[in-house]
Design goal:
mainly alpha; globular; disordered C terminus
């Protein structure tokens, strides 16, 4: 039985564990890597390096946004085509997405290198941090082709149901990064450049492994040179389906831009460092949920393409349940262990940073239990090709709600208002997501009772 048939017939719980498990593991390793970067930099360089990483994070998220435009659009479309048993269509998607990724990365690299200083200033770099930010961002931008290709190829591998293979590629990249980072920082004393160089080499390892798998006979749909010619219909579909991922990641980048300026205004470099540490903690929570979401992508996409609506509904509801349980657990962890966590991120050396980070962490943690439902809800609509709902939910929490509140609330509450904005945005977006998911469940139930045709 091939992979596509397994996704149509195997028990949903078994598929979620087998597909989401590796993705969650990869995301956990990724967040630990991110945390180690900050811990190492806090020890080797200091608070200014943490602030610099927070500034560069916005640029990195913008690069990732354009990578995910192609990666998510292609992987979702490939899953639906395989659900229809259209292998040729899936291979066209793979070849076109690969070429689009290369074109996109070249454009980003050229623009980024030319305008590096204005971009850094836009994202909150100050005279104090510029000497650290320029070399870090320059190396990061030069590595764009490896990063983008890795994102595109591994997302397609995962979209076809090869979650373990994508995880092996990803974790190999992270292990490479972690080892080289420690060597470059503590043996060669490369400072903040160490993190950027180690990341670039890690991405190269990941995209090489993914490309090797996609041209092998082990893959149900392969990467062929004959599919490299861009086709208007295929490109349009990839970009249309991927818009929600672009919006989600772009808003994260814009949030970074806004938060860097606001935290610098109300808390200086210490405020930027505190936000960066809290953001890292949030990623430790978000990424396993995103791993769960990535794991169910091929289950939902292929069963949706095959019109197996009962399985689509079951997958969505179980993913929401598991994500919510994890989010509640992490809320308890934050409440119990805030101070020890803060000490790891430079708080042991800087008491002002420790207090600011601790207070912010407790505020942001109030609505953590709601985040799993929101992430899975937005992801679901992308996986079934419902672009409008997916784009709206992706933009709602982060762009429509979070950014305005992050600007307004600090005017009244100072630096704590920055963190209050997360709570307000989560409460409002949770309500809207709940409304749309309940409406979608009614649609699915009507289709299950009348299984002919597709829901809209």
């Amino acid at each position: 039985m091939n992979k596509t048939e397994q996704l149509k017939t195997f028990p949903i719980n078994r598929l979620i564990v087998s597909l989401s498990g590796p993705a969650i593991f990869a995301f956990i390793i990724s967040t630990l890597n991110m945390a180690l970067d900050r811990i190492f930099l806090a020890k080797a360089v200091g608070t200014i390096a943490l602030a610099t990483i927070s500034i560069a994070l916005g640029i990195e998220m913008l690069i990732q946004a354009f990578s995910q435009l192609i990666a998510s659009g292609a992987s979702s479309s490939i899953a639906i085509e395989l659900g229809k048993d259209n292998k040729i269509g899936a291979e066209r998607m793979i070849g076109n997405a690969f070429i689009l990724g290369i074109i996109m990365s070249v454009i980003i690299t050229i623009v980024g290198c030319i305008f590096i200083k204005p971009i850094l200033i836009l994202y909150g770099a100050t005279a104090e941090s510029m000497n650290y930010a320029v070399p870090y961002a320059f190396i990061m931008i030069l590595s764009t082709i490896f990063f983008t290709t890795s994102q595109v190829l591994n997302n397609m591998v995962r979209g076809m149901g090869y979650s373990k293979r994508a995880t092996i590629n990803f974790v190999s990249s992270l292990i490479t990064h972690a080892i080289l980072n420690a060597i470059f920082l503590f043996i060669f004393h490369m400072g903040i450049r160490a993190v950027a160089v180690a990341s670039g080499i890690g991405y190269l390892v990941s995209c090489t492994l993914a490309a090797k798998f996609l041209i092998s006979n082990k893959c149900v749909a392969r990467l062929h040179v004959s599919c490299f010619k861009l086709e208007k219909i295929t490109v349009k579909r990839i970009l249309t389906v991927g818009v929600s991922a672009l919006v989600m990641q772009t808003t994260v980048s814009v949030i970074s831009l806004v938060f860097n300026h606001v935290t610098n205004k109300y808390g200086g470099a210490t405020g930027q460092a505190a936000y960066g540490s809290i953001y890292t903690l949030l990623m430790i929570i978000y990424m396993p949920i995103m791993g769960l979401g990535q794991g169910i992508q091929s289950i939902i996409g292929i069963n949706y393409g095959a019109e197996l609506n009962e399985r689509v509904k079951e997958t969505m509801l179980k993913a929401i349940k598991y994500a919510t349980i994890f989010a509640i657990f992490m809320f308890i962890v934050i409440e119990l262990f805030t101070n020890p966590i803060v000490l790891l991120f430079g708080g042991a050396k800087d008491k002002v940073l420790a207090e600011m980070t601790s207070n912010g962490m407790r505020i942001v943690g109030i609505t953590i239990s709601m985040i799993g439902f929101q992430i899975i809800g937005a992801s679901y609509f992308q996986y079934v090709g419902k672009v409008k709902q997916s784009v709206f939910l992706s933009a709602l929490r982060q762009f429509i709600l979070l950014i305005p509140f992050a600007i307004i609330l600090p005017m009244f509450f100072g630096i704590s208002g920055v963190f209050d904005s997360f709570v307000v945005a989560d409460l409002l977006s949770f309500g809207v997501t709940l409304f749309l998911i309940v409406k979608e469940l009614k649609n699915l139930n009507s289709l299950i009772n009348k299984p002919i045709g597709k829901f809209i």
